[in-house]
Amino acid sequence: MFQTYHTLEEATHAQPRVTALLACQNNLMPASWHMPISKSPFRYAVAVREENYTHQLLETHQSFTLNFLPFELYETVNALGKVHGDNSDKLTLSGLTTESKDAQGNVLLSASDFIYECQICDSYKNGDHTIFIADVTAIHINAVQSNEAMLFLGRGRYTTTKKSVTAHKGE
Ligand SMILES: Cc1cc2nc3c(=O)[nH]c(=O)nc-3n(C[C@H](O)[C@H](O)[C@H](O)COP(=O)(O)O)c2cc1C
Q1: Which residues line ligand 1 at a C-beta cut-off of 6 Å?
Q2: Would you say the pTM of this structure is higher than 0.85?
Q3: Comparing C-alpha atoms, which of 38, 33, 36 is closest to residue 18?
Q4: Which residues pair with 114 in a beta bridge?
Q5: To the nearest whole percent, how much of the chain has pLDDT over 70?
Q6: pLDDT-derived band of residue 170, with 50, 70 and 90 as boundaries?
Q7: CATH of domain 17-156
C-alpha cells in the first residue's frame, strides 16, 4: 500500500543522500544533491540553487572541493546550511580546520574521510537548480576513516550507514 504525492514538499519522506561540504574558496555549503556521472574521465555533478552565494562563487571561480565528512559532524553541517557566505565567514563559524588549499584556493577540510578536487567543465540550468559538471582532478583519502558516512534524510534529519557487506559475485 502506497500513498502518492506529486511534489517533494508534500511527500516529506526520508530520502537518504550522502552529504558533503562544498568549498568554493573559503565558503562552505552543505550539499546533498550531487552524483558521479562519468567514471573515466571521472566527472561529478552538483546541483546548486541560484539564490545561494555558492552559485555566484562557482560561476566566478569555476572550481570547488567536495569534502565528505563523518556523520558525527552533522550539527556543524546543519548549522552551515542556515547561513550565507556573502554575510558571514562560514569557515570560521564551522570551527573546522583546513589541511591546505588546492591550486585554485579552495579549502581542503582536515576532518574529511575523502575530498574531491573539482574543475567545472559544463553547467546548465534545470528547474530551480543549476547543475555544475566538473572533472575530478584529485581524490584525497584520509588515512583515518570514520566508516560512518553522513546521510541527510531531509527536514533536518540525519542518519549513517549501519552495516557494510560484500555481495556474492556470481559467475
Ligand atoms: C544537509 C544539507 C544539504 C543541502 N544540499 C544542498 C544542495 O545540494 N544544493 C543547494 O543548492 N543547497 C543545498 N543545501 C542548502 C544550502 O546549503 C544553504 O542554502 C546554504 O546556506 C547556502 O550557503 P551559501 O549561500 O553560502 O552558498 C543543503 C543544506 C543542508 C543542511
Answers
A1: 19, 27, 29-33, 47-49, 52-54, 77-78, 81, 83-85, 152
A2: yes
A3: 33
A4: 68, 141
A5: 99
A6: confident
A7: 2.30.110.10
